[in-house]
Amino acid sequence: MTLLLLLLIVAFSFSETIRVASASSFRFALNPIIKEFEKRTGNRVLVSYGASGHFFIQIKNGAPYDIFISANEIYPKKLIESKKAVKASYTIFARGKLTLFTMKNIELKDYKVLLSPRVKTVAIANPKHAPYGRAAMEFLKNTGLYKKVLKKLVYGSNVSQAFQYVVSKGADIGIVALSLVIPYGKGNYLVIDPKLYSPINNVAVITEHGKDKKVSWEFIKFLSSPFAKEVLRKYGYEVP
Predict the structure, then answer these.
(1) Would 127 disulfide with which of 6, 31, 96, 134, CB 3.0-4.6 Å?
(2) 25 a known binding residue?
(3) Which positions in this protein are listed as binding molybdate (predicted)?
(4) What is the rounded distance in angstroms from the CA atom of residue 90 to the CA atom of residue 80?
(5) Sign of CA dihedral 221, 222, 226, 231
(6) Residues sharing a CB contact under 8 Å with residue 53, sequence separation 6 or more, in sequence order
(7) 82 known ligand binder
């Protein structure tokens, strides 16, 4: 047995695997962060993406995730209150941004473009489960556009699905996460003034299931590392 093979076997025997439940809006930014973390530590991170609200319910009911990354502060705080997550691990590591996005030949001069007769459908995430959906609703109400575009709204189960509606041209315009639009690199977008909706704080928390795993704490810390912050800025997030 070669020395290299022996070292690999030893390293593998000490590696650990954690499961992460993450808001779908964080997909493109989280993947390179996970890759770098695995490279540096030798540990493995298995991630599932979906609506924050859906993961909240699953974790509350005992789903074996070690870390929960939510696109708002409400769900992690509720898990902490119900003893399903560890208060000391609560970390706000990024703030997301909302944007108008289209793949069609529609000029996004201002928000009133949503009233155009050319715009038949507007995709948003389901506000019952997805923080970006709630932010989109706040934006529409704060600009006085809600009642005028209500009949145009189509809902994705999460913001990634709403984004896909626009990519496939099933919806004319989407009110979606900037972090999904930037890496896609196609279409037109108009970033929405953050003053028009509540802050979309991305929060990571260690669950009751993952609290005794050393790598869970290491990963939470890594989300605020210089490397992670650089990646987050690249994908349109604000970082502390």
Answers:
(1) 134
(2) yes
(3) 25, 52, 159
(4) 9
(5) negative
(6) 75, 128, 129, 130
(7) no
Other beta carbons within 10 angstroms of residue 185's beta carbon come to 6
pLDDT exceeds cutoff 60 at 135? yes
In CATH terms, are 3-95+200-234 and 98-191 the same topology? yes
Where exactly are the structural domains of the chain?
3-95+200-234, 98-191
Residue type, 190: L
pLDDT value at residue 118? 95
CATH 3.30.70.250 fits 3-95+200-234, yes or no: no
Q: What single-letter amino acid sits at 57?
A: I
Residue 52 assigned to a binding site: yes
* Separation of alpha carbons 228 and 230, rounded Å: 5
User: pLDDT at position 8, please?
Assistant: 43
User: Tokens at residue 1, please?
Assistant: 């047995």
Residue type at 13?
S
Q: Under DSSP, is residue 228 helix (H, G, I), strand (E, B) or coil? A: helix
Is the predicted pLDDT of residue 171 greater than 50, yes or no? yes
Query: pLDDT per residue over 19-36, tens digit each?
Result: 999 999 999 999 999 999
| pLDDT tens profile 172-190 | 999 999 999 999 999 999 9
| pTM beyond cutoff 0.90 | no
Average pLDDT taken over every residue of the chain: 93
CATH of domain 98-191: 3.40.190.10
